[in-house]
Fold this protein.
Amino acid sequence: MPNNPVLVIGASRGIGAELVRQYLADGQMVHATVRDPAEPGELAGLDGDLVLHRLDVRDPDEITELAQSVDDLAVIIHNAGINRAPRAEIMEVNAVAPIRVVEALLAAGTLRPEGVIAIMTSQMGARRDKTGSLGDYGDSKEALNLEFRNRADDWRGRGALAIVVHPGWVRTDMGGSSAPLSVEESATGVRDLIANLTPEQHGRFWTWDGREHPW
């Protein structure tokens, strides 16, 4: 098995934790961020080459420390996000932080040439046929998508293959129990998308099952 280290940002539960499980099961080294490594949530007790890192995506010092602690990454997945908080916090965590974290990681040279950056977004951030507000969460994802598009060419010039991904409506704390997808299905699809990503797919909006999504 080739050594293709992966960084999963926002990994203590849900899709993030399942991505960690699956990469570990494939024998990959995984760096995973949690708010408090002493309370790793669903990552507790996992076997494999797993390194936990403390990260609050709103904390510039912790972002810098993370960027100095990882290297030679094949994949960066930014999964951290919230949907129940004051609007300013939702916008900071969902729209501002992913760009800030990726910029710090790229500036520190942590990603291999042609390495993949996958940022979790949502179809709720798509602007097509938008007739009203989708709430703070939808607004935050729309803002994320817009800023991603502004940065994509620069990131490609720095050697990255970068995409935003709608992981589907998934049975998680955020998605609720009535969602049609399991975390296993979503994570498997996201991993397949990343593993087969081509330069032609860079800078675009994809769904967990490999379909291109309109902006």
In short: The CA atoms of residues 13 and 23 lie 15 Å apart.
